[in-house]
Amino acid sequence: MTNRRDEGVGLDALWHGLPGHPIHPPLTGITVGAYTFALVAATADVLGISTNAGAQAWWLALIFGLLSTLLTATTGFFDWLRIPSGTPLWRTATAHMVAMLLASAVFLAAVVAGKGSFDSGNVETGPFVLTIAAFLLLTVGGWLGGSVVFVHGMRVLNLVDEPARRAAAPVATPEKREAEGV
After folding, report:
1. Which among 25, 72, 124, 154 is least surrounded, fewest beta carbons within 10 Å?
2. pLDDT digits (tens, 9 = 90+) for 28-60
3. What is the pLDDT of residues 110-126, one digit of tens each?
4. SS3 for the chain, per residue?
5. Beta-carbon count within 10 A of 92 CB
């Protein structure tokens, strides 16, 4: 018997996605892309490759990254709520979440500290160092997020014991695949 949560329809699909099509991973691409562009623009400004435009693009990309983080983090949090606590998957996902929240906080600090850089068109040392530190945290968090999927198999439909598997998405057991000649 399935309940509405397991059917992958309605409001639940907005936060988790459909079977085989989770929402959180594609949103991470938007967020990571914005922060990556911010680092590139800041570096171009610091190296003198770009002037005012680099500093302004850096700050605006950080703002966009923070805004996209709201949706990305929310969908990730709803996925995290479905993981049985205390399991190796839960520990990895929790470490991923903590790293990403820390990265977001440091990116926010770069935005606050960097408003003057935006206004002057010149990325200052402090906000640039914060951007680098936040990007390193983001990289560690992304690596942990990859472990959630590629080591633990979260949201991978062909795994029988996948923790967020939906009843509406039939999963072929190894025996069934063998019987079907797959």
Report:
1. 124
2. 999 999 999 999 999 999 999 988 899 999 999
3. 999 999 998 898 999 99
4. CCCHHHHCCCHHHHHHEECCEECHHHHHHHHHHHHHHHHHHHHHHHCCCCCHHHHHHHHHHHHHHHHHHHHHHHHHHHHHHCCCCCCHHHHHHHHHHHHHHHHHHHHHHHHHHCHHHHHHCCCCHHHHHHHHHHHHHHHHHHHHHHHHHHCCCCCCCCCCCCCCCCCCCCCCCHHHHHHCCC
5. 19
Q: Which of 65, 57, 63 is nearest to 100 (CA)?
A: 65
Closest CA to 126 of 135, 136, 116: 116
Two tokens at 66? Answer: 């923070």
